[in-house]
Design a protein that fits this description.
By secondary structure, this protein is of the alpha+beta class. The protein has 3 domains: 61 residues, no CATH class; 71 residues, Helix Hairpins, CATH 1.10.287.130; 149 residues, Heat Shock Protein 90 (2-Layer Sandwich). The chain has a 5-stranded mixed beta sheet with strand order 5-7-8-10-9. The chain has a 3-stranded antiparallel beta sheet with strand order 1-2-3. It has a two-stranded antiparallel sheet with strand order 4-6. Helix 2 packs antiparallel against helix 3 and helix 4 packs parallel to helix 5. The longest helix is centred in the first third of the chain and has 78 residues. The relative contact order is 0.07. The mean pLDDT is 90. The structure holds adenosine-5'-triphosphate and magnesium ion. The site of magnesium ion (MG) has 5 residues, from helix 5.
Length: 345
């Protein structure tokens, strides 16, 4: 007969016979397509044996796969979720990767622009130096009366022009120093140096400026024989010129004291003023390029904010250290430290 139900019955008795003759369990996977939803199940036929092991009866069990099917479906959908999360993260990683690539390109470009800026500053500064030297030369010739006697009013104007050219000169020199330091082109001629000699020279050059403001500069050199430090004396002079120059610039009454502290290892040069001082917040940014403290006390004082950056850079490159103590309205104290050259025994 072609009735599938009958076919199932025939099949089942066949299974029974095999289980009986072979004397062992037989399991068959079957499905009930008429059930809604269609159901799958195992049919297990097990012979019941006596003590001698002879089959006496058959047990027919139906084990539904419904729970397993539900579990499979669940597992599958969970796997899908995990898979989509994974794909999502992989995509994110890829996007990040491309963004990183973009940054790398941008970074290269920035470095190029930075180089262009450096080149521009060093070329422009060099080109400015020559005409400025000419202007300075002619102005001082006029002031010295080389071209003849000049009216007091004219003299006043020319003196103003001269002062401004000098300021411009300082700025151009500072820019040149910065660009040389940044590109590692600064030369250092390191020699054993007696700091006292350099300090005295710098003080002599700055004394007029201090006297104009009625400020007293005092210096206590160490007694001889003095310890020597290993530095470039021109750069040491530049450092001291910046620090003592600042002390004069930012002090309005009192004076500037320069003295030493010394131990087995180091020589300290301390520049102490009784000036406007600064707040702890300002002190943090002091050595940054172009940083100037802005308040009513500093408003009328000209400057670029490059002096201390250059100073610190020079000190560091000659193996020294620099630090600052300061209190608002009381004064500031800058200390530079250099290792002492050991005497050969
Ligand atoms: N001795 C000091 N007392 C108080 N403030 C100071 C002192 N030295 C420096 N400063 C502050 O630190 C800032 C930075 O000093 P820096 O020497 O770098 O620049 P500048 O003097 O303004 O200009 P320049 O580049 O011409 O030196 C100054 O603008 C000033 O506000
Ligand atoms: Mg300065």
């Amino acid at each position: 007969s072609s009735n599938p139900k009958n076919l199932g019955l025939i099949y089942k008795s066949l299974q029974n016979t095999i289980a009986w003759v072979e004397n062992k369990s037989i399991a068959t996977l079957a499905s009930d397509t008429e059930a809604a939803p269609p159901e799958r199940f195992w049919v297990v036929i097990t012979p019941l044996k006596d003590t001698a092991g002879q089959a006496k009866a058959l047990v027919d069990m139906r084990v539904s796969l419904k729970d397993i099917d539900v579990l499979t479906r669940k597992t599958l959908s969970q796997s899908l979720i995990i898979l989509s999360i994974t794909v999502f993260f992989v995509l994110l990683l890829l996007i990040n990767h491309f963004r990183f690539f973009e940054y790398a390109v941008l970074f290269r470009r920035l470095k190029e622009v930075d180089q262009m800026k450096d080149d521009f500053i060093s070329i422009a500064s060099h080109e400015l130096k020559t005409p400025m030297a000419a202007i300075k030369g002619y102005l001082s010739m006029i002031l010295e009366g080389v071209v003849g006697k000049i009216e007091p009013k004219t003299k006043e104007h020319i003196e103003k022009a001269f002062a401004n050219v000098k300021r411009l000169d300082v700025l151009v020199n500072e820019l040149l120093d910065v660009s040389r330091l940044e590109q590692g082109r600064t030369q250092f001629d390191m020699q054993p140096v007696d700091a006292a000699t350099v300090i005295s020279q710098v003080i002599d050059e700055l004394r007029v400026k201090a006297e104009e403001k009625k400020l007293k500069i005092t210096y206590q050199p160490l007694p001889e024989p003095r310890p020597k430090i290993f530095v470039d004396s021109d750069h040491l002079a530049q450092i001291l010129d910046n620090l003592i120059g600042n002390a004069i610039k930012y002090t309005f009454k009192g004076g500037i004291q320069i003295f030493h502290q010394v131990d087995q290892e180091n020589l300290k040069i301390i520049i102490k003023d009784t000036g406007i001082g600064m707040s702890p917040e300002d002190r943090q940014h002091l050595f940054e390029k172009f940083y100037r403290i802005k308040n009513e006390k500093t408003m009328d004082i000209p400057g670029t904010g490059l002096g201390l950056w250059i100073t610190r850079e020079l000190v560091r490159r000659m193996n020294g250290k620099i630090y600052v103590d300061s209190m608002e309205n009381v004064g500031s104290q800058f200390t530079i430290v250099f290792p002492i050259i050991k005497e050969k025994e």
